Amino acid sequence: MVNTGMQLISFTCAVTGWIMAIAVTALPQWKVSAFIGSNILTSEIKWEGIWMNCIYQTTGHMQCKTYDSMLALPPDIQAARALMCLAIFMGWLSCTVSCCGMKCTTCAGDDRRAKAGIALAGGVLFILTGLCVLIPVSWTANTVIQDFYNPNVPLMHKRELGQAIYLGWASAVILMISGAVLSSTCPLMERSGRYRRGYIGRSFANSPASALDPPKPITSNSVPLKEYV
């Protein structure tokens, strides 16, 4: 019961992290305009994501435009696109595999050995999904920080970390921790050469009860002895 509860909790957290990864992929707040120098007061905020750029005005209007050319994008944006799409696919695959290997499902029947292997594979896939989210988010954050402290970059081109970066880090941590917990809750595969404790020999515990033979008189040289009470 304890392992089943831990599997349900870790699976729920992993699905939550996967949904957060989908949100990170769609959000444009990967890079946000930096208000430094003379640009303290501004009427618009610029957001840069991996799919589009958005300009948010203080009046409440927002305009977004997708990137025209994929090959003209920086390497970190191109890698982020590929890895985030891979993370979404692997997250879906992890959910499917983990559902088949959990104890509360009947996908693999009563074969504990098969269910343990399937659940272990699902946990490993969740960990790999977290790594696929962590790599592009950290790469983009490193690029933003380097450009921010680079004196050769103009002030109007400097950016800060957006909300999607922090959400991506949280998603990656949740996915990896949930995958590790899901993998650790799998029971150890039973060995084929296991032994039983106690007396190794004929077991009378499960043997059918046989009718007792009637007592026989003690004889000596084929002559019955007299019974004494």
What is the structural class?
alpha+beta
The string of secondary-structure elements, in order, is: HEEEEHHEHEE
Taken as a percent bin, the fraction of beta residues is 5-15%
Low-confidence stretches: 189-207
The side-by-side strand order for the widest beta sheet comes to 4-3-2-1-5
CATH topology of the domain at 4-28 and 74-184: Butyryl-CoA Dehydrogenase, subunit A, domain 3
Number of E-type strands = 7
Give the CA-CA distance, first to last residue.
59 Å
Largest sheet: 5 strands, antiparallel
Query: What percentage of residues falls in helices of 4 or more residues?
Result: 40-55%
Rg, Å, rounded: 33 Å
What does this structure look like?
With 229 residues, the protein is α+β, with helices and mostly antiparallel strands. The protein has a domain of 136 residues: Butyryl-CoA Dehydrogenase, subunit A, domain 3 (Up-down Bundle). Helix content is 48%, strand content 11%. Strand 3 and strand 4 form a beta hairpin. Helix 1 packs antiparallel against helix 2 and helix 2 runs antiparallel to helix 3. The longest helix has 37 residues. The two termini are 59 Å apart. It is found in: Cell junction, Tight junction; Cell membrane.
List keywords for this structure.
single chain; about 230 residues; alpha+beta; Butyryl-CoA Dehydrogenase, subunit A, domain 3; five-stranded antiparallel beta sheet; two-stranded antiparallel ribbon; 4 helices; about 10% strand
